[in-house]
Amino acid sequence: MTLEIIATNLTDAKHAEAYGADRLELSPGMLETGLTPSFGLIDAVANAVDIPFNVIVRPHSQSFIYNNDDIEVMQKDIEMTKQLGADGIVIGMLTPDHVIDEEVLKQLLHTAEGLDVTFHRAFDFVRDQEEALVCLAKHPQVKRVLTAAGQQPAPASIPNMKRLIKLAEDTHLEIMAGYGLKTDTFSEFYKEVNPKEVHFGSGVREDESYLSPIVAEKVNKIRTILDA
User: Fold this and answer.
1) How far is CA 156 from CA 31, 145, 152, 202, 228, in A?
2) Rounded to whole angstroms, how far apart are CA atoms 222 and 13?
3) What's the number of domains the chain is made of?
4) Are 86 and 53 in contact (CB under 8 A)?
C-alpha cells in the first residue's frame, strides 16, 4: 500500500520521508490548490530524499483550462523537472466543456516521456468521471488518478470511489484516494474502500492547515493502518 504525502517545501519533504511516506507530491501554493514549485526547490528535494517524488505542473490557479502560452510554460517546467531528477509529474487539464483536454494531455505526455505521471484532481471537476477514466486509460504513461470521487471530500464519496476502483480494474490505472482524508476517520474509510494508494495533505498537519508542519504521530497512525 502506497502512502503519498504533499510536501510544500524542503522541510516537509524531509519530514514526510522520515515519518513514513512512500512517495511525495511536491506541491507548494496549496492555499491555491497547488502550483509548480521553483527549480531550486525541486533540486533541493532531489538531493535530500530517497523516496520517489512527483512534481505538480500547474502554471496558475485560475482554472484547469490552459492556452498555448500555458502549455509552453508547462512543457519547459516538465523538461526542467526531468533534468533536476524528479521521478514524475502531476498534471490535469480540462476543456471549457469539463472534459479532459486530450490534445493538451498528449503534448505534455510527449514532453514527459520517462516520467511517472499522475492525473490530479481536475478529474473531480469533469462532467462524467467514467468518460474521463476511459480517456485516461488510452494513455499508458498516466499511471494513476488522484481523486476524491467527486467534489466532496473522499469520505463523503465512498460509493463512487468504490465504483471508480472497480472500473479501473480493467485498465492499467490506479485510483489514488485523496482530498479530505483525516487520521481520525481514515481507518473506517480504508476498510470500506481498500484503495492501493492514498494521498494525504492537510490531514497529516498540525491543525489540519497547510500553514502548519507535518505531524509525525499522524503519519505514523496512517502507516500503522496501511501496514496492518
Assistant:
1) 22, 18, 6, 17, 24
2) 17
3) 1
4) yes
Residue 200 cell numbers, joined = 494525504
The pLDDT tens digits for 80-97 are 999 999 999 999 999 999
CATH number at 63 reads 3.20.20.380
183: closest CA among 146, 148, 214, 151?
214
Return the closest-CA partner of residue 28 out of 52, 12, 44, 46: 12
Sign of CA dihedral 184, 190, 192, 197: positive
In 10 A of CB 159, how many CB atoms? 11
Give the CA angle between residues 119, 45, 183 to the nearest 5°: 60
- Boundaries of domain holding 134: 2-227
Looking at residue 33, the DSSP 8-state letter turns out to be T
pLDDT at 23: 98
Widest CA span in the chain = 47
d(CA 89, CA 34): 13
